[in-house]
Design a protein that fits this description.
With 261 residues, the protein is of the alpha+beta class. The protein contains 10 helices and 6 strands. It has a 4-stranded antiparallel sheet with strand order 1-2-3-4. The chain has a two-stranded antiparallel sheet with strand order 5-6. A hairpin with an 8-residue loop joins strand 2 and strand 3. Helix 1 packs across helix 2.
């Protein structure tokens, strides 16, 4: 099977890459590899690619990825690659790949979010947030914490994003760990004990809806205008405000409702 790829270059030109993948009972087998006008030895290309993946992913995961290809079957109608990998290897490879993508895109890391989550828990345990009954108090604590951390970091915008995601996991749902990776474990306490009694406009469901939608907004980076609108709604939910309207948010992002339930 011939695979061809054209890559656009900043100069306006195109770089053509072409290779042949052969049917093989013993893993990946390249028939030839052309990089622009250069013809490179297939084994050298595979060894170099494996080494680069090991360097990027760490822990020899590039080798794991290559060795997991058990056989290649090619027919007139189908291309079938059989992959054999243990559950532990699959999880490690997926976690490393996701982590690298998040890092390249400037997204929050699990370690960074975990630090904010731990400080929220400590604030509850030491009494700083013990008497809080409004999500606004938690948000103020979270924003202040992010501001403190931003003083020693290169990306202050990322800090507020990480802090909001931590708050959403802490008071909303641990399912939101899927946005960044494993943040908390079973040993960190029951989710029901977090933010007990905290409300938004005297309602727990609105509180959860708000922070879950805010976290999804941070993760998707769909636009600053919507995030500003969310924070205005939160402030309006305070005493003297015009009142929280989750319907306004749900109208644009109805999927938030399903996840919050």
């Amino acid at each position: 099977m011939i695979v061809q790829l054209s890559i656009g270059l900043p100069t306006g030109r195109w770089l053509n890459v072409s290779s042949a993948i052969n049917a093989s009972p013993d893993g990946l087998d390249l028939g030839f590899f052309e990089f622009g006008r250069l013809t490179l030895p297939p084994q050298m290309v595979m060894d170099t690619t494996e080494g680069l993946l090991n360097l990027v992913l760490g822990d020899g995961l590039g080798t794991v990825a290559f060795q997991s290809v058990d056989r290649i079957e090619i027919s007139e109608k189908a291309f079938i690659a059989t992959v054999e990998m243990s559950e532990a290897e699959r999880k490690a490879l997926a976690a490393s790949a996701k982590g690298k993508v998040r890092s390249l895109t400037g997204a929050s890391s699990a370690e960074e979010v975990r630090a904010y989550w731990n400080r929220l828990r400590k604030a509850e345990q030491t009494g700083s947030l013990k008497e809080a009954s409004s999500l606004v108090d938690y948000l103020r604590f979270t924003v202040a914490d992010a501001a403190d951390q931003s003083g020693t970091r290169e990306n202050p915008e990322q800090q507020i994003g990480s802090a909001i995601i931590a708050l959403s996991i802490y008071c909303g749902s641990r399912k939101l760990q899927a946005l960044v990776g494993d943040v908390v474990g079973k040993e960190d306490g029951l989710e029901a004990d977090n933010c007990r009694g905290v409300r938004l406009a005297d309602r727990v469901d609105l509180m959860k809806h708000f922070i879950i939608s805010a976290a999804l907004q941070v993760a998707s980076d769909a636009g600053a205008a919507f995030a500003i609108g969310e924070f205005k709604e939160l402030l309006d939910a305070n005493k003297g405000g015009s009142g929280f309207s989750f319907d306004d948010i749900a109208g644009d992002y109805p999927e938030f409702c399903a996840l919050a339930r």
